[in-house]
Design brief:
Blueprint: H1 16-22, H2 33-68, H3 76-100, H4 102-121, H5 126-136, H6 138-154, H7 159-187, H8 191-194, H9 198-218, H10 223-226, H11 235-254, H12 266-288, H13 304-332, H14 337-343, H15 345-361, H16 367-386, H17 394-422, H18 429-457, H19 463-488
Helix pairs in contact: 2-3, 2-6, 2-7, 2-9, 3-4, 3-5, 3-6, 3-11, 3-18, 4-5, 4-6, 4-9, 6-17, 6-18, 7-14, 7-15, 7-17, 11-12, 11-18, 13-16, 13-17, 13-18, 13-19, 15-17, 16-17, 16-19, 17-18, 18-19
Amino acid sequence: MAEPEVEEAPRGSYTASEIERLGRERPDAFKSTWTEIGFCFSLLGSMFVAEYFISGFNILLPTLSASLHIPPQAETWPASVFSLVTGAFILPSGRLADMYGGYLVFVSGLVWFLVWSIIAGFSQNYVMLIFCRALQGFGPAAFLPSGIMLLGSIYRPGPRKNFVFSLYGAFAPVGFFAGIFFAGIFFAGLSAQFISWRWFFFFGSIILAIVMIASYLTVPSDREAKKDVEVKMDWWGAATVVPGLLLIVFAITDGSHAPNGWATPYIPVTFMLGCLLLAGTVYIEGWVAQQPLLPADMFNVRSMKTLVLSLFFQYGVFGIYLFYASFYIEEVLHATPLQTSAWFAPMCVGGLILATIGGLILHLLPGTILLVLSGACYILSMLLFAIIPHNPNYWAYIFPAMICATSGIDITYNVTNIFMTTSMPKARQGLAGALINSVLFLGISFFLGMADLAVTQTADRGRRESYKVAFWFAVGCAGFALVVMFLGVKIGKRRVG
C-alpha cells in the first residue's frame, strides 16, 4: 500500500549534507539554548513523574493497605486504575492536542495531575484513594501524547531528535527507579516512623509543580498554527472506545478477584458489553465518523500493523516484568524495600547510558536490527526470572535481567516513537503520540490482568511457583512479539533518523 505523505524537510531543496546539518541544529522554535534545555526538562520531567507515581505506589501499597484498611479484594485497584484510565482516555486526548495545540493540552494535563496528586496525599479512606488515583490518570492521558506531539513536530529528523527521544524514553526507567527508591525510604525501617506515606504524594507533587512551571515558561506555543487546521472531535468514537476499553480491562483485571472468578455474573456481562462497545467503535470509525479518532489510513504506512501488534505484546511483557519482578524480589527473595530499589538501579543507569549512545547511533543502524535486538532483550529479562533458583546470585540473574529489561524498553520506545512521528504529517502528531502511549498503557493493563489470572489460578503451588507462571507466560508473549517483529516489521535507517 502507498505510504501517506510525510512532512519532513523538503529533500528536493536540500543536499544530503544540508539535511544532516539541519538534523543537528537547534530548532527555530527555541529562541536560545536555555529555552531548549527548559523544554527538554519539561518533557523529561513529565515522563519522570508519570513513572514515579506508577512504580512507587506498588512499593507503598502494603503500608496503604494497613493505614487505610483496604480489603484484600480491592488491593489491586488503587494500583491498576491509574493505568486503566490513562490508557482509555489517551486517544481522545491526542485528538484534543491536534485541535487546540500540544502546548495547551500538555500544560493542562500537568496542572490536573498536580491537583489530584496533592488531594491523593490527603486520602482518608481507600475509596477516596481509588477515586483520586483514577482522576490522576487523566493527567498523563493528556500530557503524554501531547508531549510526543511536541517532540515530533518541533525537531527535524536527525541525531538531535534521536538524542532527545532517547532521553525521553530513558526517563521512564529513571522515574520508575525514583518511585521505588523514595517509596522504599518512606516505607522502610525507622524512616516510616517519622515520615508519613502521604509524603510520597507530596514529594511527587513538588517535582510536578517544578515541571509545570518550566513547561509554562519554555514549551513553544503552537496554538496559532492550529487555528487553520480543521480538526474536530469524534464524539461518537470517544463515547464507545473509552467505556469499551474500561469495561474489558476491568473484567480481565477483576475476574481473578471476583467472589466466584469469571463465574461471577458481572464479570462476563462487563466483558461482553465492552466487546460490543468496541465493535461499535470499529463501525463508527470505519463507516460513520468523518474524522475518526484512529483513521484507518494510519495503518497504510508500511509495517505499521505488525509493529503495533508486536508493541502491544512487548509493552505488556514490560508491565509484567515491572510488577512481578518487584513483588518476587520482595516477597520471595525477602529483600527490603531499600534493597529492592538498589537492585533496580541498573535499569536507571542503563537507561541513561542507552539514551546517550542511542542518540549517536540510531540514525546509523537499520530500525529492524534494533527492534530485533530489543525483542531478544525482552525474552532474556523474563527468562532469567523464570529460571531463577531459590538463592540466586544477583550478578548472574537479577543484574542481567535489569539490563535486558531497560535495553528492551528503551530501544523499542525510541525507535518506534521516531518512526511513527516521522511517518505522520504534522496535523496527526498528536494522534501519533496518542497511539504510541495507548498501546503502551493498554498493553500493560491487559497483560497484567492476564498474568494476574494465571497467578491466581496457580496460587496453590505457592507464591514462588505461581509468580514463575507469570514469567513463563511473559516469555511466550515476548517470543511471539519477536517473531512478528522479525517477519513483519521493516524499518530502515531513514525512518529512525
